[in-house]
Amino acid sequence: MALPETKTPTSNKPPFTRTKVIGLLLGPTLMLAILMIPLSLTWEQQALLAVIFMTVTYWITQPIPIPVTSILGLTLTVVFNVAPARTVFGAFSSPTLFLLIGGFMITLSMVKYGLGQRVALGVLSLPGIGHSTTRIIFAFGLLAALLSGVIDNGAVASMLVPIAIGLVQALSPDIHEKRPDLSNHHPLRFATALMLITAYGATVGALMTPFGDATNMVGREFIQAEFDVLISVGSWMALAVPIVAVLFLLLVTIVILINRPEVRTLPNAQQHLAEHRRQLGRMSRGEKNTAIAFGLAVFLWLLPALMALIFGHGSAPHLFLVQRLPPPVVAILVACSLFLMPVNRTEGFTLRWRDVRQMDWAPCCWSVAPWRWAT
Q1: Could you tell me the residue range of the domain that residue 61 belongs to?
Q2: In this structure, are 119 and 248 located in the same domain?
Q3: What is the pLDDT of residues 14-45, one digit of tens each?
């Protein structure tokens, strides 16, 4: 899931670097070489292998944008008669794609109104956390992991990293005051640990639910299609949550051992956090609407598993929810509700179409290509 694109000044960097030129020529060369080499494969298998080699080469060297490369790879599978066009491009009508789109819109609303920042500052302000550097690192990583279970990990990192940077800037004078021997020209280990745990925590936490990342959705859809099994949110989490918990504890331990904070306690940390929360002010109507939509989505995603626990797997309430409210339907319903929740007369509704137009739709393109090749 991706965030709104931001316009950046025109760069003086040449459009074609040496790496891009080499990749532009190497990709088709590898494809033709694999097509001509005699291998003990069927034509469809050998042609698919050739297309994959060319596509991966273009992904790495990027002579053309990654989403365009993905679409080109799908098109070449039709050109080389690996599969008919209806099969190759049929993935764009898959429910999984609509789960991605709905998740994009929910994430967009959270970023637009800064709800993630408020949640993060609220967690760090809990008693017993703000005074300890180790607990701040642990809490930040845990928050990143939990949020990335229902929001794309890239979006989570982009929401939390600015908070982490602001926190480091505010707390650095306190750390240097307690440790005057530290050099101002070297980054603090506390800052390094905070940045790493934010990025890695979001990556680990994305495994927790099937909609934590696009790769989870593609893998789940592939397994369901190939083995004719239904992987519910509850069954996925029953397997993934213990794994994520172990990985997260190992992650925190390694990050803190390698980047041991210069001090253990920060007496003024709570004051800085309180100041940040004061600057946010009261929750806006947009934040409240987004929080309601987000909470509703999580509740409806977990409701089938809850009904299975209460009434039994395969019971009438459980089957009704599985059939009528699968994750893609919930994502689209909740996303559409954001276009109906009013903010004020000036802004209109929580989300507007001009917001959606700014989204980066590239993940919809590149996530479909590996999925189609796998099937």
Answers
A1: 18-83
A2: yes
A3: 556 888 889 989 999 999 999 999 999 999 99
